[in-house]
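A.,

Following up on our hallway conversation. Structure tokens first:
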């Protein structure tokens, strides 16, 4: 089933009706099936709910195989700084909680692999639907 929050290059929607802590756990859990073992960088912006979404994304990620990841929660960050950290730390991937240029009532997730390639929302959706 197509859900509008899962987009070609990210996951974005109204907070908390479309994007919320329940969805964040699902998305984190899906990423535990995608990321290679290693360091995972998680950051967030200043939007309402970003801290909670980042924390529950991490909760979902931890539902994957135990001790698979070293989760590096950097907290408040800009998106360019997040990308820099994924690269500089040699991470296997990462998640930035942000809705970028969207209005303040939106939130979302930018997810990248260790090569700095976006992992599209539709890829995540396909995994979420298998739960």
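Then the amino acids I'd put at each of the 131 positions:
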């Amino acid at each position: 089933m197509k859900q509008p929050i899962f987009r070609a290059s990210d996951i974005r929607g109204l907070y908390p009706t479309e994007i919320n802590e329940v969805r964040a756990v699902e998305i984190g859990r899906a990423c535990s099936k995608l990321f290679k073992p290693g360091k995972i960088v998680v950051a967030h912006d200043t939007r309402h709910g970003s801290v909670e979404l980042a924390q529950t994304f991490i909760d979902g990620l931890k539902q994957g195989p135990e001790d698979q990841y070293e989760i590096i929660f950097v907290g408040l960050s800009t998106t360019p700084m997040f990308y820099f950290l994924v690269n500089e730390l040699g991470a296997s991937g990462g998640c930035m909680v942000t809705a970028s240029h969207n209005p303040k009532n939106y939130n979302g997730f930018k997810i990248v692999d260790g090569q700095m390639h976006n992992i599209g929302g539709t890829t995540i959706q396909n995994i979420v639907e298998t739960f």
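The longest strand covers residues 69-76. Curious whether your intuition agrees with the design.

B.
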